[in-house]
Amino acid sequence: MTATPIPTSASPDRATEPCACTGARHGLHAGGHPAGAFTVTKLFDDLPCCHRSWAHDGRCVYLHGYERSFELEFACAELDPATGFVIDFSALKGVRARLAEQFDHTTLVAEDDPELPLFRTLAERGIVDLRVMRHTGMEGAAVWVLAEASRLVEEATGGRVWVSRVEARESRKNAVVLTASPGGR
Question: Is 153 in a helix, a strand, or coil?
């Protein structure tokens, strides 16, 4: 686990400006850490699933699979006063479980896929473990992961920690990165 403080401006004219995160002055917070945000990352991998991009004008129109992985970055302005951590990774068990429920040996189909009724029939017959998503590609997966992980982490930390970035990877060569908009948590 690597905690990286995001540096703030060290210019003298900013030294007396209130810190946007807690109202503390730039320099050190009462807890002794630099003003700014701390981040840690956690990798969630071993999530094999298949999908198809029915509207794609190429081979991705066919059902195909990847072992997906998601690297999530968690951020906070104040460390946990009891542990000094951004987040105790044991608090992320719910995130891991939710990702496994969605992506572990499942078949992802878009909600507007014209073959969705066929996939529903396959699911009813126990041939696929169907998950219907707005978009089944890695961009859609990143959006879904950001929303779900944000909800779970906010609940676990009382809003002290937020998900600041999701890297959704379908292979060692291909990934998409979704960064939460500042203040948008």
Answer: helix
Full DSSP string of 2-60: --EEPP----GGGTTSBPTTTSPBSSB-TTSSBSS-EEEEEEEEEEEEEE--TT-SSGG
Q: What is the pLDDT of residues 73-131, one digit of tens each?
A: 999 999 999 999 999 999 999 999 999 999 999 999 999 999 999 999 999 999 999 99
Say whether 3 sits in a helix, a strand or coil.
coil
CA distance 128 to 150: 28
**Amino acid, single-letter form, for residue 153:** V
The CA radius of gyration of the chain, in Å to the nearest whole number, is 20
Q: What is the reported pTM?
A: 0.80
**Is there a contact between 37 and 6 (Cβ–Cβ < 8 Å)?**
yes
CA-based nearest residue to 146, from 172, 181, 174, 170:
181
CA dihedral 93, 96, 102, 106 (to 10 degrees): -120
Angle between helices 138-157 and 93-103 (to 10 degrees): 150
Calpha distance 151→140 (Å, rounded) = 17
Task: Give CA–CA dist 44/69, Å, rounded.
Answer: 6
> What's phi and psi for 37, nearest 5 deg?
-120, 140
Answer for the pair 174, 69: CB distance below 8 angstroms, yes or no.
Answer: no
Sort 163 into a burial class: Cβ within 10 Å, 0-12 / 13-18 / 19+: buried
